[in-house]
Amino acid sequence: MIVELLLQQLVNLLSLGSLYALIAIGYTLVYGVLRLINFAHGDVMMVGAYIATFALTRLPWPAAFGVAVCGTALLGVAIERAAYRPLRTAPRLSLLITAIGASLFLENIGIVVFGGRPLAFPAIGLFDRVLHIGGISLPLLSVWIPAGTAVVLAVTFWIIYRTRTGMAMRAISRDRETAQLMGVNVNRVITLTFALGSALAAVGGIMWSIKFTSITPLMGVMPGIKAFVAAVLGGIGSVPGAALGGLVLGGLEVLFVAFLPELSGYRDALAFFILIGILLIRPRGIMGEDLPE
Fold first, then answer.
1. Is the pLDDT of residue 63 over 70?
2. Is the pLDDT of residue 141 over 90?
3. CB pairs under 8 A, 24+ apart, for 251-259?
4. What are the tens digits of pLDDT across the range 159-192?
5. CA Rg, the chain, in Å?
6. What sign does the dihedral 21-26-29-34 (CA atoms) show?
7. H or E segment at 235?
8. What was the pLDDT predicted at 104?
9. How far is residue 48's CA from residue 110's CA, in Å, rounded to a whole number?
10. What's this model's pTM, rounded to 2 decimal places?
11. Could you report the per-residue pLDDT of 207-247, keeping only the tens digit for each?
12. Could you give the CA distance from residue 25 to residue 28 in angstroms, rounded to a whole number?
């Protein structure tokens, strides 16, 4: 019985942790290049979920998901061009306020356009099946989510460490002015970074909607905050750190609910306790780099 309980919680951990990791990778990509905490990231995820929902009424699911990912990537580019690029040389506080403003703008536009009521995400047979192995219930979605996250992580690693664009991203993250003097097209690389980060948010939003089956204009708020905590926990700016932070945060949340069910109403507060704790004990996170004073 105990073994079955632990295996069941392991399945839940991988499923939830992979979702957080997927969203946190997009967070950390933008921060790594621009040193900007993009608080609109969770709302970009929401937009991806809505585009997928409406696309699924007309298209088969692979095409609908592709439309959602491409549409959300374009939204990320639009946000960068309209909200962040004009303030790129402004103080960090201005960028932070702009990011919060972009987040509130998307949320309220979502409420005006889609209404405040939850909308059911269309069921997709491939993801709805449940396997029963002994006493363990294994939704196939719990396999698809970690597998999808692993593929996304591998592609992201390949882009960052095996392509010229990735090399330019790493150069800009170290010293933007020097990279520009060396011939790097900074505007183009930052635009591609936002497109990639927003595409990852769309994938996370789609998987989140399949798992929790409903969408609302505010659905990205809490996952966005938790993904931010995961990125800080793993070491914001580090892609593998974001993946690790997502798994750790998801694992702690699953164990908290499993072994302290009477306190499950405080599961969201757990993320804030972890954020405070990591900032006090190890501000650079688990895999963050030591920075010179």
1. yes
2. no
3. 251/13, 251/17, 253/16, 254/9, 254/12, 254/13, 254/16, 254/17, 255/9, 255/13, 258/5, 258/9, 258/12
4. 988 899 889 988 888 888 888 888 889 899 999 9
5. 19
6. negative
7. none
8. 93
9. 12
10. 0.88
11. 889 888 889 999 999 998 888 899 888 888 788 888 889 88
12. 5
Q: Which two tokens stand for residue 200?
A: 């990852």
Provide the pLDDT for residue 48: 94
More confident residue, 227 or 6: 227
Question: Cα–Cα distance between 11 and 235 in angstroms, integer?
Answer: 25
Query: Residues 112-138: what's their mean pLDDT?
Result: 80
Pairing of strands 119-120, 214-215: antiparallel
In angstroms, the CA 67 to CA 59 distance is: 9
DSSP string for 170-215? HHHHH-HHHHHHTT--HHHHHHHHHHHHHHHHHHHHHHHHHHH-EE
Rounded distance between C-alpha atoms, residue 66 and residue 250, angstroms: 27
Q: Which helix (H) or strand (E) holds 132?
A: strand 130-133
Angle between helices 2-34 and 141-162 (to 10 degrees): 30
H or E stretch at 266 = none
